[in-house]
Amino acid sequence: MATEILMPALSPTMEEGTLAKWLVKEGDTVSAGDIMAEIETDKATMEFEAVDDGIVGRILVAEGTESVKVNTPIAVIIEDGESADEIEAPAAPMAVPAVEEPASAPEAVAYAAPVQPAVDRSPDYPAGTEMVSTTVRDALRDAIAEEMRADETVFIMGEEVAEYQGAYKITQGILEEFGARRVIDTPIT
Amino acid sequence: MAARRATKKQAAPKEELLKYYKDMLLIRRFEEKAGQLYGMGLIGGFCHLYIGQEAVVVGLESVAIEGDKRITTYRDHGHMLACGMDANGVMAELTGRIGGYSKGKGGSMHMFSKERDFYGGHGIVGANVPLGAGLAFSDMYKGNKNVTFTYFGDGAANQGQVYETYNMAELWKLPVIFVIENNQYAMGTSVKRATKSSSFWERGTAFSIPGEQVDGMDVLAVRAAGQKAVKHCRAGKGPYILEIMTYRYRGHSMSDPAKYRTRDEVQKIREERDAIEQVRGRLLDAGATEAELKAIDKDIKDVVNAAAEFAKESPEPDPSELWTDITVSA
After folding, report:
1. What is the ipTM of this complex?
2. What is the pTM of this model?
3. How far apart are CA A83 and CA B319, in angstroms?
4. Residues of A (85-114) whose Cβ lies below 8 Å from B
């Protein structure tokens, strides 16, 4: 039976990704555990493994394609004796199951309305400051790097801050710039 | 003090090998399916797969008796299946459904079963080790012959609380087996980069706890070491350390690109030392046929597919479940 291989979610936050590279081609035999493709997620480039044995019948998404939504069919695996010609046109991307609204709201629990403190929400940076769009992790990384450039005595140590580039990529590139004396991996415990 | 490597090649009758084969295969197929469901967005959050390490839990469960307890870290699906928890309930917990062991509120790392004496599933590295000693304390206190298998990894083995626990466990002669699943990587940090003394079982000698290093890719070697350990514990001689040398084939978690080791390193172990393949070879030598093994493969696949179906169809917990299971009723 032909099985569609769907674009996987390879991180908890991934909604779409880039099909960076196919490591198999049509007609190749794959076994469970073989690396089929490299997929770039929002966090990293991940290897995508075959989960079943079979033959790559058809590749539906070419390598280099960006913004491939999770659950889009990217290839079809066929079994021995099947012909790739029998594969029908790919179905529409499988819809992600919609989260159903609960039929009734949970029983209301009476709380005292929190008192809203008066907060001054006007910006605390000078008017006319040029703003840039960035992610939280890049902002943290840039701030760490800025301090390290400004002050020789600033260093960073922690679990997987150096060679792994930070478990959540906060310290990406920091080791490269500042070296192992100032960017120190500690044992994981 | 017992301190030798178990090197003698073990043997087992066909029926026994068949059980190990089934139990290990169930874990592997279950985990592959979990990885697949994760990829489809049906499982969210944390998910750490046990693929490659199956012989550790299957070997040790083969020496457990009714009433023995087990507690582990967050790479826990294999432990649950090996101790007899239901695949449907585990998979449904992964998908966050009411049919799961924690009614869909715990997820991958937080499942428990009093019926099977499985005490979790713990997300904090090393924190389950003192808890395991506590479970063993209850058996010591009650004066029964049960033991507690307390599993943790090579990363946790460098934690302070592990050594405080060793001290108390030996002091009070607690029936606890400390099982260090040394898969050689603490997240992305190899053992070699985390400690200068990488023989973890030997550290027990500082506390007078005996132990040994075991080939964790050979289920019969694990069983043999487990037999020794439970004998020691059940005789009231206190704790025992098993450092089980194993290997995980997948990344630390689902979002780990595993750049800290080469593809060749993983491939070499899969090809040369895979625990399931080893038992498969032994089975064929013992007279099992390919057809017989194929039928088992199919049965296991059916169990796992049924679990996946159950995990997709079981409803999400009702919002009112937010207010349950918070405190213990007196």
Report:
1. 0.73
2. 0.82
3. 48
4. 94, 96-97, 102, 105-107
